[in-house]
Specification:
Blueprint lengths: L5 E6 L2 E6 L10 H15 L6 E6 L10 H9 L11 H10 L5 E5 L2 E3 L2 H6 L3 E5 L3 E3 L13 H8 L1 H10 L2 E2 L1 H7 L4 E3 L1 H17 L2 H17 L2 H16 L2 H22 L1
Parallel strand pairs: 2-3, 3-4, 4-6, 5-7, 6-9
Antiparallel strand pairs: 1-2, 7-8
Helix pairs in contact: 1-3, 5-6, 9-10
Length: 264
């Protein structure tokens, strides 16, 4: 795979996807979106990978759409692409529906569509100096394609505030809204990222994937009544799996051994 705007690194069970247009603050164009789709497809099919991390090279995570891409948008007539699947929408859906946990690490500027990239990930970390903005309205646009992912993450009324004003948001407010999960200074963020990776890897490989699928079904696929019935089936099935049996037996064995040590 010949990548021009993305760097893919694999380290044992962790894949790191780097946005690599630092001179453009990682503003995305059609090529970058295509390459993201390709990379996430490849990594999702790799049985050795258990975690995907999304990051940006240079001074910013992602400054939204590239100027040249915006020129193309301006030149297109209304409805000229009617019926075609939106490229960015496909990319965000690919990230959102990846089987394994996805972690975004944001820094610098996260503007416009860059917020869609982080919103599609499971967990988002950010350096404390990071600035976020849904700046589309300032350009006479709307954050249409990213909205299903962002509103799922932050809810209706935070979305109304951020999207209608297009104002700049610091990490304190971003964390409070749920746009990001945790913020740390530049020195601490790598340490917390590693702790997060370790915690995920300590979980059962099948269980972690099944847990992610469970959340997706409860949030997006089942009615409340269906969830009550289906979750009973899911816990029965996972409890009977080889992975669960081995891990539960190991846990119980350690408990018994610890009791024996305390009583002796």
């Amino acid at each position: 795979m010949d990548l021009q705007t993305i760097i893919l690194e694999k380290n044992q069970q962790v894949a790191t996807v780097w946005l690599n247009r630092p001179e453009k603050h990682n503003a995305f164009n059609g090529q970058m979106i295509d390459e993201l789709i390709q990379v996430y497809t490849e990594v999702s099919d790799d049985p050795d990978i258990r975690i995907i991390i999304l990051r940006g090279k240079g001074k910013s995570f992602c400054a939204g759409a590239d100027v040249e891409m915006m020129r193309e948008i301006v030149s297109k007539k209304k409805n000229s692409k009617m019926g075609e699947r939106n490229q960015l929408s496909t990319c965000l859906q690919k990230i959102y529906q990846t089987d394994v946990p996805t972690i975004a690490v944001a820094h610098g500027s996260v503007f416009g569509g860059g917020n869609g990239l982080i919103a599609a990930c499971d967990i988002v970390l950010a350096e404390t100096a990071t600035i976020f903005s849904f700046s589309e309205v300032k350009l006479g646009l709307i954050p249409a394609v990213i909205s299903p992912f962002v509103i799922r993450r932050i809810g209706e009324f935070h979305a109304r505030d951020f999207m209608l004003t297009g104002r700049r948001i610091n990490t304190l407010e971003a964390e409070k809204s749920g746009l990001i999960n945790h913020s740390y200074n530049k020195e601490m963020i790598e340490q917390f990222l590693q702790e997060l990776i370790n915690n995920i890897l300590q979980g059962g490989e099948i269980a972690v994937k099944k847990c992610k699928s469970l959340i997706d079904h409860v949030v997006n696929r089942w009615s409340f009544e269906e969830a009550l019935l289906e979750t009973e089936k899911w816990i029965r099935d996972i409890r009977a799996s080889e992975e669960a049996q081995e891990r539960m037996n190991s846990f119980l064995k350690k408990k018994i051994q610890n009791r024996g040590t305390k009583n002796s």
